[in-house]
Design a protein that fits this description.
This protein is mainly β. The protein has no helices and 11 strands.
């Protein structure tokens, strides 16, 4: 069992930065690939970024490449998402998720996630 708790959301002006953090409970954190997803009103939940169990490989959706950075600390059971140059289109509820994936996989679909956090709101003003 893994429990995930996100923090760090808030209101920021376009062009600004936010850092989201996700704290995981349980001793098996390093067994899971981790990902950040987002869901805006009226839209489907989409994958934003993901990172392998070791942290050695990452995935980003095209719209955030070069602006967002995902990282993890297996010693502290945390995964973070540094978001720079935020745009109004980035506004959404952001969720942290954990997935058991076969070796070589990085990104995963929402339906492949084993655990979810409760979400944190990111609002970007133009």
């Amino acid at each position: 069992q893994v429990q995930l708790v996100e923090s760090g959301g808030g209101l920021v002006q376009a062009g600004g930065s936010l850092r989201l953090s996700c704290a995981a409970s349980g001793r098996t954190f390093r067994a899971y690939a981790m990902g950040w997803f987002r869901q805006a009103p009226g839209k489907e939940r989409e994958s934003v970024a993901a990172i392998t169990r070791s942290g050695g490989d990452t995935y980003y959706t095209d719209s955030v490449k070069g602006r967002f950075t995902i990282s993890r600390n297996n010693a502290e059971n945390t995964v973070s998402l540094q978001m720079n140059s935020l745009e109004p289109e980035d506004a959404a509820v952001y969720y942290c998720a954990a997935a058991l994936l076969p070796p070589g996989r990085v990104g995963f679909l929402p339906q492949e996630a084993n655990y979810w956090g409760q979400g944190t709101q990111v609002t970007v003003s133009s």
